[in-house]
Amino acid sequence: xxxxxxxxxxxxxxxxxxxxxxxxxxxxxxxxxxxxxxxxxxxxxxxxxxxxxxxxxxxxxxxxxxxxxxxxxxxxxxxxxxxxxxxxxxxxxxxxx
Amino acid sequence: xxxxxxxxxxxxxxxxxxxxxxxxxxxxxxxxxxxxxxxxxxxxxxxxxxxxxxxxxxxxxxxxxxxxxxxxxxxxxxxxxxxxxxxxxxxxxxxxx
Amino acid sequence: xxxxxxxxxxxxxxxxxxxxxxxxxxxxxxxxxxxxxxxxxxxxxxxxxxxxxxxxxxxxxxxxxxxxxxxxxxxxxxxxxxxxxxxxxxxxxxxxx
Amino acid sequence: xxxxxxxxxxxxxxxxxxxxxxxxxxxxxxxxxxxxxxxxxxxxxxxxxxxxxxxxxxxxxxxxxxxxxxxxxxxxxxxxxxxxxxxxxxxxxxxxx
Lengths: 97, 97, 97, 97
Prior knowledge:
- Four copies of one chain form a homotetramer.
- Chain A has three helices and four strands, in the order E-H-E-E-H-E-H.
- By secondary structure, chain A is an alpha+beta fold.
- Chain A has a single domain, classed as Alpha-Beta Plaits, CATH 3.30.70.
- Chain A has a four-stranded antiparallel sheet.
- Chain A is globular, with a radius of gyration of 14 Å.
- At the A-D interface, strand 1, helix 1, strand 4 and helix 3 of A face strand 1, helix 1, strand 4 and helix 3 of D.
- Strand 4 of chain C pairs antiparallel with strand 4 of chain D.
């Protein structure tokens, strides 16, 4: 039932540096106890759809208190019956090269 | 409080033609009564975060009954206090060109 | 050989309203004579890979003269031997609902 | 002048497992000598726009020889005058949490 999600969130009205806001989102993700992996262009989160979406909503609600314009991108990969995919997907590719 | 969301969903395990599955998602979006606009690469939906995410989840649950691997992309634009933005954003750009 | 591309570009360092910059990108796309369709969350462009990527690069080069931080999202759908897809993809879905 | 790009590519007409095709793309990226980082949902590549886009095109051309329907997502972050950002962006966030 689990999904792997690549998630980016940032404010557009706060000027050139957005890392303080990204760091707040990451802290919310960490607190959720879901498996995650921070990347240069987004954070991958793995879990049940409802759990992942709840964390994304928390990140959004938190940033809304500080910003009047927010952009988010979400990529979702669902594969039936698989879990441990944040590590597994990378291994599956790496062993083929 | 409303967001504008660009949403794409399709199965990866059903071969080259995915329009039957996209059509099912579109029907779910239509039934929701949210404002939407079908595009060549995704459907834009406008509404409260919870309402939009519920529709997206319905599309996902529906496709999960038919497909074992699903890909989704979601782009979200939140702007405080604005609504009617599916039409408004396009007008705002068009009047400048 | 043609692709359908959904393309968004905006500056992060210009404050809450980005439509003047989006309008400049749209003008560049219009001048290219490629088939396009403006949407609320991006513009769809259809054409040969090289032609589409050249237009996207022009939009990027133009915005770089005005902004020090730029975000772009690009979704690409390639289907062998098909063209006229900006209209065709929408029709294919609409006739199924 | 450099950009950081998150790039995903996969065929839609090859069934549920796409890792062999992702592995081929990764090999092309490796050969390019650009800085990259493989993630669960895409590969981040850093370099000049032209160099990064040339690698992405090579991945696309390679997959076109095997697949009749291909999907790609690309997210681009440009920041003037900065380089070493694949490592730098992560550090910038991590030191704030």
